[in-house]
């Protein structure tokens, strides 16, 4: 394993047919029929991601190299800096934010409870930030931030929006007979 930009920082894993690295997750297999070496890594971890290089030294001045990049796929995790709940007064502008980590980078979408129509129109909004220019009492309730990247089942955070509004008083008109 090596850093493509720093040739000094490579970590030799094997020499000839023997592993140097003392990690039981790594194994090296040689196939006589095809004259190929295969490096296997069990229980892949995030820090295994990176570039791997195979070098075959024919002589001091002649070597054959092959490189491969290992990308470790990770399911989405919604970040702590995402909105958890909001309280706003009717007419105010509100902004709900949702950020997630994972690989490949997750896509963020917003939904409302029971697939109710979002203030932006439609039942789904795509993007990290859901803005409501002037919040109304009908906008109150639970919003869902959903992060998906095709790895695992995705992640979801419930965000509760409370809207404070002036009381509405209705008086029934007395009937005069």
UniProtKB/TrEMBL annotation:
Residues 75-162 form the Ig-like domain. Coiled coil: none annotated. PROSITE patterns: IG_LIKE. GO terms for biological process: cell-cell adhesion. Keywords: Cell membrane, Disulfide bond, Glycoprotein, Immunoglobulin domain, Membrane, Repeat, Signal. This is Lachesin. Pfam families: Ig_3 (PF13927), V-set (PF07686). The keyword Hydrolase does not apply. One of its GO terms (cellular component) is plasma membrane. Its main location: membrane. It is found in: Cell membrane.
């Amino acid at each position: 394993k090596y850093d493509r930009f720093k040739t000094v920082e490579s970590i030799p894993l094997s020499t000839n047919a023997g592993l140097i690295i003392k990690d039981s997750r790594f194994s090296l297999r040689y196939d006589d029929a095809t004259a190929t070496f295969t490096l296997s890594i069990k229980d892949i971890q995030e820090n295994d991601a990176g570039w791997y290089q195979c070098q075959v030294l024919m002589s001091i001045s002649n070597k054959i190299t092959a490189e491969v990049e290992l990308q470790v796929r990770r399911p989405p995790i919604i970040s702590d800096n995402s909105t958890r709940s909001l309280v706003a007064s009717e007419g105010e502008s509100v902004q709900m934010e949702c950020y997630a980590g994972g690989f490949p980078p997750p896509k963020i979408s917003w939904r409302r409870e029971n697939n109710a129509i979002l203030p932006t129109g439609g039942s789904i909004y795509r993007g990290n930030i859901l803005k409501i220019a002037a919040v109304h009492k009908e906008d109150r309730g639970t919003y869902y931030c959903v992060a998906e990247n095709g790895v695992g089942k995705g992640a979801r955070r419930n965000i509760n929006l409370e809207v404070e509004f002036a009381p509405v008083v209705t008086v029934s008109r007395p009937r005069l007979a």
